[in-house]
Specification:
The chain has 295 residues and is an all-alpha fold. The protein folds into 2 domains: 70 residues, no CATH class; 214 residues, no CATH class. The chain has 10 helices and 2 strands; from the N terminus they run αααβααααααβα. It has a two-stranded antiparallel ribbon.
Length: 295
């Protein structure tokens, strides 16, 4: 096991991410008019910090021919079926989460999408357009779902690629010699901990911020297991990036406007309902026979 490469990767990933978040906070405080731009830049740096950390670690590790984690990097899936499977399965999981959750009272459906209508109205007014031209709620929901589906395997997958190149494509194969369960748990716990500064930067360092961190850490363990198992089976980082992108697109897309989450524990894309749902998906994927292929 390449312990030096592992330590260098983890240290570099955390250092780059924390430095980016700290710089965004400091610059945003000194130059408040640049806050949005600096925050966006920090998020881009954060997204690709694991890829940069993997490159740094690879330069400081043992010779490639002795590195058990060395393998060919595949970015673009050869089969459209694998992309379609990711889009459909992730969407169905969220449909189940919000559908069942709304019946149990964990979510409250808002088919008028009041919050989305307000956001669209503000955007239209800022562009100097006629607010009377705002589409009806049904059209907004339809467009929102289309964007959620399209952006998942494209824009969001590109955002996730930097993370997957580090956590799944570099770190995971280094840890697999210690056993699948331990490798998955360690990879995902470190991944969740690495996301903590981003969560705290958004929610603050109060009690709500730390509750959000715990939710993200739990989701990192269960959904990260899905990504780890996908990588172990097919050794395709592009495929795991697409699954991660579809997850992010659904977690931050129109679902949030259609289904409100009055229950702080069960509700939301990182609530207990979502965590349980993805734990079931992870176990189902692990239980699939080896001959089964998503491609």
């Amino acid at each position: 096991m390449n312990k030096r490469g592992i330590v260098v990767f983890v240290a570099a990933a955390f250092a780059i991410q924390i430095a980016a978040q700290a710089a965004a906070i400091i610059i945003g405080y000194i130059l408040p008019w640049t806050k949005w731009t600096i925050t966006a830049a920090a998020l881009i740096v954060t997204a690709w910090a694991p890829a940069a950390a993997a490159w740094i670690a690879s330069k400081s590790s043992q010779p490639p021919e002795k590195d058990e984690g060395k393998h060919e990097i595949e970015i673009v899936p050869e089969s459209k079926r694998s992309v379609l499977a990711a889009v459909i399965i992730v969407a169905l999981v969220y449909a189940g989460i919000y559908g069942i959750g709304s019946k149990l009272g964990w979510f409250k459906a808002d088919w008028e999408v009041s919050a989305l209508t307000v956001d669209v109205r503000v955007a239209v007014e800022q562009m100097g357009l006629d607010v009377e031209q705002i589409p009806p709620p049904a059209a907004l929901i339809g467009v929102g779902f289309v964007l959620t589906i399209v952006l998942g395997p494209t824009f969001y997958a590109l955002v996730c690629l930097g993370s997957e190149l580090g956590w799944r494509n570099y770190l995971l194969p280094k840890l697999l010699p210690m056993g699948r369960v331990r490798a998955y748990l360690l990879t995902n716990i470190l991944w969740g901990a690495w996301l903590a500064p981003v969560v705290l930067a958004r929610h603050g360092v109060g009690s709500m911020g730390w509750v959000a961190v715990l939710k993200v850490l739990a989701m990192a363990v269960v959904f990260g297991t899905v990504l780890c198992e996908l990588w172990r089976r097919w050794r395709h980082v592009g495929l795991t990036a697409i699954w991660c992108g579809c997850f992010l697109s659904n977690a931050s897309g129109v679902w949030q406007y259609v289904f409100q989450n009055p229950d702080a524990i069960w509700g939301g894309p990182f609530g207990l309902a979502a965590i349980i749902a993805w734990a079931i998906v992870a176990l189902a994927l692990i239980a699939l026979p080896k001959r089964f292929s998503l491609e």
